[in-house]
Amino acid sequence: MLIFSLALEDPEKMGLQEQSEAFLEVWGNALLRAPVAAFVREQASRLALLVPEPDRLERELPWLSLRALKFRERDELEAVLRFWSCEERGPQAFPMGRLWDARVRHYLGSRYDARCGVSDWDLRMKLHDRGAQVIHTQEFRRWRDTGVAFELRDSSAYHEPNRTLASGRLLTHCGERVAARGYWGDIATGPFVAFGIEADDQSLLQTRNGQPTKTAGEITQHNVMEVLRELAAWGRPRDTQGDREKQPEPEGSPEQETSGDLAPAPFKLHFLSLGSARSLHHKGCYQARFQLLYVACGMVHLLGPELAACMAPGGNLLVELARFLVDLRPEQLQAFAARVGELAGAAGFTPCASAGPAETFARFAKQGARGPDTRPRAPSAAPPVAAAPPQPHDLASHATTGLDSGAPVPLSDF
């Protein structure tokens, strides 16, 4: 919600450059600049007021719908947004610096004192070998040490904790289960591989003396700006899409009638209940409806006939593979890709010719219209999902990121 609110911000209020920088900080940095942190608080406060009122929400944010959520889930979503907007206790309410360091210490263990060498090894011997050569040593090492992947301003400006990265867990403390809030996100691969290793503009990927001329951060910013420019062009005449400052004429005006065809209609984002992937096919409105299904590598266990029943005949399935998970060995990557193929085949999908790197995504197409197969199945020689290579959320350490005393942070403290 916050990311889309930022991406669809009025160009009169926030320019493209500022918008892209704020996007990168919120999405990829553990620490924010003060102006970006203020923007997050402002947007979170606004969203927290809209979540309990679906009618008002759809009037003010027509691209968002929460009607499929239960009341309890809306309350939980509102609580998260209010935590993001809270200012009473400042950075101490979510001490991101200490939480990040605790995660890195637990992840590296006895290698913590040699963390610079470990990060260089992971970058050069794993990420570079798997196609991410544009990631620079300094930016990767800085992210591993501080959580700041995109340093777009002076380094001293990043001191506000990014509360949008917080998550909660039930941890055992002194023999009791305690609810704690901390950071359990990625500390191994980094956000660079999402937007920063490929580009349509090949000049960004040029090398000089064997070294890339642009860093992954610069490529990421370029790609994000292009995405935001395309989003800003939706619903406007095509001949004005290249100019964010030029606004469409009023409906029915002669200028609009002669300015060309309109861009595609805006999208609508529907939030669904947690765990609904297994039950969507029971509702007629979702059966054979979707043309494209994207499954992250950490959600492959949800890929089954139930989810396939929601796909239209000929629909496309795109599955993220584990290519850039640095803790997996080559044989584990191959086993994971093979397991994805088995699950997709059992769900009724057939492999497609790959238009991109086969090691990054697996592409499939729906064979035909059919519901979930409830007939008894013969035992399969394939290992169960639990025996597949570790998922992304299992690769990072599960350290208790508490305060200096080592105790978890109770939710009641916030």
Automatic annotation (TrEMBL):
Coiled coil: none annotated. Residues 64-352 form the Dynein assembly factor 3 C-terminal domain. Residues 235-261, 366-414 are annotated as: Disordered. Residues 236-249 have a biased composition (Basic and acidic residues). GO terms for biological process: axonemal dynein complex assembly; motile cilium assembly. It comes from the Eukaryota. InterPro entries: DNAAF3, DNAAF3_C. This is Dynein assembly factor 3, axonemal isoform X6. It comes from Heterocephalus glaber (Naked mole rat).
